[in-house]
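User: I'm putting together notes for a lab meeting next week and I want to include a structural view of one of the chains we've been expressing. I don't have a solved structure, so I'd like a prediction I can at least talk through. The sequence is below, exactly as it appears in our construct file.
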Amino acid sequence: MRRRDLITGFTVLLVAPRAAEAQAPKAHRIGYLAQGYSFDRHSTNQLDGFRRGLRELGYEEDHNFGIEPRWAELNLDRLPALAAELVELKVELIAAVATRASLAAKQATSTIPIVMTLSLHAVESGLVDSLSRPGGNVTGMSGLSDATIVKRLEVLKEVLPRLERVAVLWTPDFYRRTPEPQWRALEAAAPRVGMSLHPLEARVAGDLEGAFEAAAQNAAQAILVLPDPLTIRYGIRLAQIAVRHRLPTIFQDRESVEVGGLMSYGFDFYESSRRAAAYVDKILKGAKPADLPIEQPTQFQLVINVKTAKTLGITVPATLLARADEVIE
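Assistant: Thanks for the context. Below is the predicted structure for the 329-residue chain, given as structure tokens.
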């Protein structure tokens, strides 16, 4: 082999890998900040929806994007440190699950874009300036809980036409005060459907049994459970206690119905997380969060556990079963 040919061959070998590197797609590093557990079905279901949304937009995990997940394990005090950790990693964007995670991310950075997979009352909580023009570095999916929480009362009334007194279970340490604006919406709606409300407080798991005993003592005929770290984590225990006290329950999330709760009505968190991926795509392609209007979820789920209904001696109207998105036998 001539010396000139040998040099040319080495040149090709040296240049080819560099050319390949230049053509390789950029791997985007996306932070994911969640309030729940990494193994909890309610939480992993939302992450699955987010991943699916990115795949549908042409992203391939471990090829042109990677997710850095951080889980607070329902300890909300951990959220600021976890958000700071994602900022330290220099992620390109933070997807934040629920209001507290979104607020923690916003407090940790004013420059890294933040996409809410679903935060309630984004304007009222101070996350964005308005739904049409968010301003700042936060955008994504935001819902109003008022309409859905009122709908839960209406669904209960359909199942229990003689229902007059409903206990509302909530965790004051999570809401920090009476759960506004949910409580305002309930107070306004209850008289319209002929109901009165009885608030129940539970701070730790050991309070749940006593809360249901108090509900029974106050002649409550059903329990409306507000979503918070305690009630989500102990969904199975809540369902068992409710059956033992023969009290029908209605939740926000379908997972609580899967483990024995009577009914749920609320946002489709999987679908909301999937749609949030579209914001990620736009931002990674150069859009500014401040200019991307907030989207509100349009899909809601009614889930009914017929097995629990039979255990409680309740006959769910056929018209309601026909409207349900899912019936658990």
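A couple of points you could mention at the meeting. The longest strand covers residues 28-34. Residues 232 and 256 are 7 Å apart (CA to CA).

User: Perfect, that's what I needed.
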